[in-house]
């Protein structure tokens, strides 16, 4: 280690990394210069998940005046923070310290809330998480039906166990009590605008390009200003911690057996790796599919994942003939993994030692059961992707029988897309943690003209970015008016994947809960929702199977079963399918390369793009990707924020969320702070309107592309020659 470099202790975040994969400890060291897609997005992540705000409000649950009495250790310096913690703990009696710093040999933790009670000789370690919990989960001790700790909860449980173990080493004379502070899924907030009291800011740190996320809390704020904190649920987990301390670590990949024996053994090993800067490597697994240290072909920094692949090849763990240094070559874990249930395709192909997509053999992935559903089977999609990587097979596949459904659609065709948020810290009174807020929709219409041609227009949109305005019920009201202006639904409504259906079923409950006093048109809104949706998930258990008379058509399912494109690289998300179909359907692509086609007052009407030539969606210098033709949400003056925001939106899109889902949610959460300037709020709103307009236009383009590929002549469209 460089003598000028400060020690890099095994902290909470690095302990978590080590559990995921010990090699990540090496890749995460900045001086090693590896690409990290999670780097520097703390501010935007805080906007997205609200975890920092929950952490700040939690202080009021344990101290009457946490700001005024300065219970928080603010400094980030290791030694200074430990000294400051010790000063606060020197006060006799019961002491509450937030962000308490504990250091023992190679271990360093910042405890969200530490309570030292001298009389009872106890230390409470309280880990605050912006994660909702139910009584059922607590009663089950975070275990599943098999009696194993639920994989979704295990990282949190290990986190607090690690902290408790460090506290035990630092305070040997005290009994350590470990607790999680979570968000109760069924308890509503008692006041409007609680989140306004904890504003998120990003403060530049001296000598660092990385801004530090801070929560600005009014110094005079008291618990009376906040109201009841019953939605913060404290869960005692000391028994679970005692269990995890001694049991073998069996859940994590890439850890040698001798270091899995118990928590202490693993901690000591991980701490040594962290301090000496070595690069451990102990195999690859399905966890590699989500590795944040994978760099693309155009990225100048090193790619940790590709280095692991080379090591696996060198050790004979994987076999393959391609050059791993060529980042354009798809790896075996890039195989589409949808429609597999509990089975992991990545696990399956790695167990066969396949390094690259082209190495996968048909027998590796043969399904146990024959496909009896409509259209192209998941196995056929996967084999098409494999054949494409081998330089054989077809560029695209169409299941004409499955796509014949298009001939039965009732016109006009309505494309809708929603933007929503589910804040951890509720924005409004009576809201529960993570309850859905619907703040925006876009609506494109494809309609047949009298002369037999097809017209396309951006027909409707709605957005609410005003701070303090509850949007969801007005959202449903505006959507109903857009789709049923005269009270009747004419045509077919389309969505891309499950989001729109899930949101409307959720808002149905919001409307019923509000009651007739606040929503006099309740019956109209409920009837509208029931008309175009179907019950899913837990709702089916409550009310049984329910499908509306005119349910939305899911284009995602149609694509999965009816259309494969080599250009999409195995993905079915609209983010990848849009540029793919525009490469496969050249006539449609040529339409959207035209200047003067799309815009207000032009052939294809727009609500947000103005000017005599409108907007050109396919531009060669933007890689013919329509999304890349739009400016950043936060404006050119915030280039760094925009770059982070695009990374936050992410590429791992197999849930079917459209490209900018995370982006829009984050930007909306930013608008809900009242001190945002009118200019900045309006700029964000206009940017969101343009992005959401593209989301529904993308669905139009996709349908047009499928029509072209099926041989439907584009002369049907009114602007074609």
List the keywords.
14 strands; 3 domains; single chain; 5-stranded mixed β-sheet; 721 residues; alpha+beta
Net shape: globular
Instruction: Please give the share of residues in helix.
Output: 25-40%
Hey, roughly how much beta strand do the residues contain?
5-15%
Q: Main β-sheet, in a few words? A: 5 strands, mixed
* Gyration radius, rounded: 27 Å
Category by helix and strand content: alpha+beta
Mean pLDDT: 90
Give the termini distance in whole angstroms.
Answer: 69 Å
Strand order of the largest sheet: 1-2-3-4-7
Low-confidence stretches: 1-5, 646-660
Q: What count of structural domains?
A: 3
- What is the number of helical segments per DSSP (H or I, 4+ residues)? 24
Record field, number of beta strands: 14
Nutshell version of this structure?
The chain has 721 residues and is α+β, with helices and mostly antiparallel strands. The protein contains 24 helices and 14 strands. The chain folds into 3 domains: 39-248, no CATH class; 288-393, no CATH class; 395-721, no CATH class.
Word description of this protein:
By secondary structure, the protein is of the alpha+beta class. The protein folds into 3 domains: 39-248, no CATH class; 288-393, no CATH class; 395-721, no CATH class. It contains 24 helices and 14 strands. It has a 5-stranded mixed beta sheet with strand order 1-2-3-4-7, sandwiched between helices. A 5-stranded mixed beta sheet has the order 11-10-9-12-13, sandwiched between helices. It has a two-stranded antiparallel sheet with strand order 5-6.
